């Protein structure tokens, strides 16, 4: 579905006739030098992609990738056109889960085609924001690329921050005196961190290249902007690596905790057993059938025996209490 | 066994006389510039290899490797001829196992020799498909190399996807409340992942080189195709690394689970023991032989004692139930 | 808040009119060649930053970063101006915790702007010290940069030393015979080490570059000074890595300790149980109702039975004592 | 001890006068261009080494290394002479152990000196084989170097294969239901793998250099041969790394197994205890001394009680059997 | 304290006037080309360092480092002077501990200043030995540097060998049937290995550079000598890495051992308990008060019951013995 289609002239949007999708998509708007056209598509049908590929002369391998929503993030160059795959990430609070989407972009001299798969970042909003920032739009298609990368990476940082909160929770739970089974929580978090890492890591290298200005399409001024993106990517990936390390340590601590708790349980159980077993021995003694057992004939023999049992039990209780077993 | 032998002229198959294997194999078909011959062999005898090595002037070390089915994947250059070893992988559903085969290729200016060992990818089918795609065949021997690499790597992705399903199953099993012994399952999966890694990793470097066009036999257009292959290889290896990491974490969680379950068992056992041992103490008390034990003479002393035992047992049961030990 | 503002002429401070902040900040002091102005700000408001950015023509992306106190350490070049982000670390003895602050610096030809966020290093003190060392100040803005990096990295070394003490304590606790739950302590230390690592690691690369003199702003003599800084950074990061490794080993030892202690507890409990259970068996025997049980009719049967129980109990006690179970 | 000494002329052995060792060793045979002399020594005395060093003008540091049998594998160049240290490995079936020896080689323009320490590869056999392969001998001293490297690395592959069998055995033992203590076996295997790795790893880099033909003594044709060696080294090191990883995983599985078995033991013990303890309670009940206990006066009270105990015991047995505790 | 001070002329020691320290230290002896002066200092006071720094025009930063005995090993170049920091290691048998000292060296065109901190290598002995080896001394200051590096690294190898013995002992202890608590021993060894690694690792890179002759002060012949040092360093670091890996594996095996022992203890305890509890049940049975219990009236009822108990106990003992629980 073609979502939007506009011409940008000196950083300003030039309205295009609001025809039906097909006509919009297939018609390449003639451009003055420096102008560019930006088409936004969402979950395109193969035919729509075909049409646009024809209009902008896109490479078939890139178009094939663009139709598939399970690409890995990358920046490829086909002739004069850059093909960029970005993973979008966002954090769904209700489920404490990281969701992923995908944006594919074709960036040429005088056009940008953005293809969004699934949910995720709101590209229309990004476009509206960008249309307010003429100084970025003036950089042409690479400005659009920067703006979208920037927005996507900002989302990564939010996801990173949300995961930091989750890790803090896990940490608290691991070290709380309560008996918690944190291993599945830690597992899920590690899985999500791996997800984020797979979105972030492959982008670092191309963004660093953009930032160093080694890419022919990147001017010095543009490079500065991409350095900002590369820097945020780096920060996200450090946060993520740090969280991963903390989770591993927290998991080890969790294991230690289980062992310690088992030990405590064992002592508690043993102490409890002792409190029952020693009086049982006393009862056994007074159950013996010797002819001469003076206590048996005492008037208060029975209460004495009960008291002895209770007393021994209580003494044991105090003893174990004091030595920390109960 | 020589499986097929054909001449390709401008991307079209030119039928060759359907003689017996020997004559086919030994005869090098004269080629116009741009034409090439493609011979496919399966589990060749040393004599067949010898014959073909003579015809196409192949290097003895490469021929020796081609006769052996336990090579590691690699791309070597002997004079003008590329020698490529690929591991083929496929997933056998019935056994949840990854099987491996091997394809060796000699790629020269005007010929391709493919040597298949064991089962695995269907090269005849690959040839038939390729004969439908003249635009790839027109690239000559390197086009054939691309097409086969592409097919082999596609299989890797299927294997990766199948392993992802297996890992999901293991994960579910680890975190299910049922007591499962997942360690051998995890071990087998890790072993298979190592197998896939050994097929995938050594190919990444040469494919990346092909993709960057640094190889003298690779034209810019061809390089684009190989970039696609390199990209899929990269994706497979990321999937595999991710699965490996998840399995390690799952294994740790499995260990934690065992400890937790042991702890739960211990508490359950202790609670059960308490329910029996405390009534035993009561029985012991009323088995004592004191002269004066009023309860012994009560009319309902015995039922009272039994009720006391049952009551204490039930109270303990409730207590342990409430504190989560039972 | 603008903290200080001065002109330095041949390594000497030239007093500037002590007007209000705004006027100070916005006025760029005309400089002779070789002179430079150094403005120090603390927790600046956006307006103050805006003002200074205008005065010294700072890049908006750098200014945006400077206003945010959660940057990662880095050295970026915007046109002729270096933008440096340093994390300050200090160790708070009362809480055994590492605290972090941030210093941002803009280093131009003839000016330095230092922006401090939060607590941490005392920049005014650094300035006063530096004003005593004309030979460093003579190097101009890069001399200031060196002096501040040096001071920041010195603090890292102090933090490293404090963490070494903490790790020694943990070590002692792990290997002491007392039952200690060191896992949370180890976790916290690992977390702090990760904090230090995040401050130290990203700086190593740019400092090494400064030290090798590859940076255009760095003279050979300056490079020697930065090599000193790079060297200290390297030392800190080695100390930190070493501590991290020791903590991991200590944690493993802690786990082993827990297992060993559980084992010891189990044996102690079992020995205790045996001492009670065997006399109970004896009591059971003399509680049997056989017609002919000679002991029952002995005059000293009862004392004999009690002595037998005590004797057996004591023998068991000695036995377990000797075999190390008690 | 000088083992053999011969001149090779156009790939053919030229018999030298069969004098005593000393005269053979000290006399440098005059060579036509392209001819070379090959002296083989075994466990040389310092004097023999001295003599040969003088004859062929070997560097004192290399000679010192050659006299010592605990060098690490390496390829060093002293002037025009290559000094090569190879570790030989072989697998001793009776002890399931990897043994190591050492070969030092001096490779000059027109001579090869091979120094063997300890047991290991049979250099005389290698020489006899090589004398059959004139096409390798024709490459001169580098041909000899190739032939020996090839043979040494072939032995590595056999060791790798033997270790694979060992790891398979360990694996089977770990996952067998029998209670095996595999940790020492795994430890020994890991130790042997480390041994192999120390022989293999340092050779990879120089062999790769030989294979890439960057070494001045290596012709293009020779490089092809060394590529074969480098390739086998790579394969061995991948096999070894894989085995190491599998052993680590197997060890973890072994640990999990121990825990699971302990858990099973605990349940079995508890079930057994319950079967004894509950009848004991019953016996306790009928040992109580209440005046009115009807069962005591039943004619078949006693058999009834015994039957009750047996029945309860059997019921418990069935219950635990069914719930998998026994 | 200035220990020695001499001039070396063509590899021979030229006696200098044996005045007091101060005069010796401050006087720079006039040198012929190729001659050099070597001053050895031990635990210098700041004033001594100051004096010497003035005499030989040493860089203040290097002098500051030389006065501090906690530098990391490094090779720095200040103008024409090399500043080298070496850690000396030696093994103290009585305490099974690795001790560290430090040597700082200033190596100029025509002088060497060696500064020793703490105990460690005997530099005077090194000097005496070196004075016997004119061919090394003739290389001038770099020859002295080589000779000292060589001696220091030789000590590393001895330490490595001593640690190998320690690891063998730990290994034996871990796998001995005795119950040993090896974790603290392993921890201490790992700590010492880390110490050695910190001495060895930072030196590898500069020594390799010296060995490759890329350093301007190093002649080709000298480079050969440094290659020897670099080679020994490499060997030490491989030994150390190997020991570290073995210790980790040994620790894991130790953990497994603890678990296995706990399991064995548990079974032993359970078997012991069974042997007591079953006779207790029998005693309970014959303690019941049924009117009709024939055994009670047998003449030999009591001995029969005792025999039954003993028999059942013995049968259980045999059963557990045979099934390996006792």
Q: How would you describe what is shown here?
A:
Chains A, B, C, D, E: The chain crosses the membrane at residues 269-288, 300-320. Chains A, B, C, D, E: GO terms for molecular function: cobalt ion binding; cobalt ion transmembrane transporter activity; magnesium ion binding; magnesium ion transmembrane transporter activity. Chains A, B, C, D, E: This is Magnesium transport protein CorA. Chains A, B, C, D, E: One of its GO terms (cellular component) is plasma membrane. Chains A, B, C, D, E: It catalyses: Mg(2+)(in) = Mg(2+)(out). The structure is a homopentamer of 326-residue chains. Chain A is α+β, with helices and mostly antiparallel strands and 326 residues long. Chain A has two domains: 2-257, Beta Polymerase, domain 2 (2-Layer Sandwich); 265-323, Methane Monooxygenase Hydroxylase, Chain G, domain 1 (Up-down Bundle), CATH 1.20.58. Helices cover 60% and strands 16% of the residues of chain A. The first copy, chain A, is built from ten helices and seven strands. Chain A has a seven-stranded mixed sheet with strand order 2-1-3-7-6-5-4. In chain A, helix 7 runs antiparallel to helix 8. The longest helix of chain A is centred in the C-terminal third of the chain and has 67 residues, at 220-286. The mean pLDDT of chain A is 88. Chains in contact: A-B, A-C, B-D, C-E, D-E.
